[in-house]
Specification:
By secondary structure, the protein is an alpha+beta fold. It has eight helices and nine strands. Strand 1 and strand 2 form a beta hairpin.
């Protein structure tokens, strides 16, 4: 592990080490073991996929398998089935790995926040950036998937043409993996002359591979979280409603501290589109879309004047854990002192921790309240 930052006092360093130990015990080692398993399954898939291609296009004589003499076509069918079986296992392992990785990120954020609070209570307030070296040595996972994560991180930070090239290569590899069951099935059918038996074998393999993707997607859908935040403001509903649908106001209140908002498209009508970018003011931030920017787009699904705004939106990102459509429903109701705002954010992707989302919404609604209470428009 890297040397801890000299700005931290002895008590803070000791507490950091305790938190790091718990972090590794709870999630880090589990993630590492899952990564090893997925890496082994990907290696087996790659091996049997290569054998299937070789048997379909390069082998003409008999093949000995466990003492049995098989024709290349029969041997190709066997390796094809095995390749599909390991594809199935690898996809499920990668799905589990993604969920555990997001849990690890969420736990890391929690421990950072805990440590920062501890430092503050000890009279040694520090910036989060000064603690980066404390968790710098936490293992995640080995092999192919570690390379994949590294390439995505480098591409996101690099930006420009080099970043675009890295993302293109990475996406190409992912696309080739996703298409491999169909390509192998086509090779098998080519070798067999589209025999009925081998058509059945090819369809069985494709069904197994599709089942793995379906299971992962269903699990992702089930575990999508929601947040609900309520805020009272001393302003009439009409004023709050206008601030929800005005691009200049949105650029002021719907942006986290430390970021700058830019509204590219904003059509405040039912079915109207919007596109917004949030860029970190300092280079220490890591964006979801580019190195320092989060961009999202969507549409206004429902507008009830002075009562409700429903938005359907999604991030523009290459990160699978951040993809998927979300729904934001903001409902306004009269109170004796102004307006009650209820913001419900449904369908959070697994890469967006609910705690972070909730904190962001609290900050946004505080800014919205300050804006309309100050007499905006």
């Amino acid at each position: 592990m890297a040397t801890t930052n000299p700005q931290l006092g002895a008590q803070v360093q000791q507490q950091a080490q305790l938190l790091l130990d718990a972090h590794l015990t709870n999630l880090g080692q589990r993630l590492f073991e899952l990564g090893k398993k997925a890496d082994q399954q990907l290696t087996a898939w790659l091996t049997f996929a290569a054998l299937t291609v070789a048997l379909c296009f390069g082998v003409t004589g008999k093949v000995s398998l466990g003492g049995l003499e098989l024709t290349p076509t029969v041997a190709a069918a066997v390796t094809y089935v095995l390749a599909c079986a390991f594809y199935y296992r690898a996809v499920l392992s990668m799905g589990a790995l993604g969920r555990w990785r997001e849990a690890l990120k969420e736990r890391r954020t929690f421990r950072f926040d805990t440590l920062l609070e501890f430092a503050r209570t000890q009279g040694q307030p520090v910036e989060k950036a000064t603690l980066a070296d404390i968790t710098g040595g936490i293992p995640e996972y080995p092999g192919y998937l570690a390379c994949s994560a590294l390439i995505k991180d480098v591409a996101r930070k690099q930006g420009g043409a080099p970043g675009l090239l890295l993302r293109s290569v990475h996406n190409g590899v992912i696309a080739a993996f996703a298409a491999s069951p169909y390509l192998l099935a086509s090779a098998l059918l080519y070798r067999s002359g589209i025999s009925v038996t081998y058509v059945a074998v090819a369809l069985l393999g494709i069904a197994v591979c599709l089942a793995a993707s379906l299971i992962v997607n269903l699990r992702d859908d089930v575990k999508r979280a929601s947040t609900r935040i309520r805020r009272r403001v001393n302003a009439p509903r009409a004023a709050v409603y206008r601030a929800l649908l005005d691009p200049e106001a949105v650029a002021k209140w719907k942006v986290p501290t430390g970021m700058t908002g830019k509204v590219h498209v904003f059509e405040p009508r039912e079915g109207g589109a919007f596109r917004v970018s949030l860029t970190y003011d300092k280079p220490t931030g890591t964006g979801k879309t580019t190195a320092q920017t989060d961009t999202y787009h969507g549409r206004f699904a429902k507008l009830v004047p002075d009562e409700q705004v429903v938005e359907a939106l999604e991030f523009e990102t290459d990160e699978p854990a951040l993809r998927g459509e979300m729904t934001i429903t903001i409902t306004l109701a009269d109170t004796d002192r102004g307006t009650d705002i209820l913001a419900v954010h449904d369908g959070l992707p697994p890469g967006l921790p609910p705690a972070d989302n909730e904190a962001g919404w609290r900050e946004a609604l505080d800014k919205l309240a300050a804006l309309v209470e100050a007499g905006w428009r």
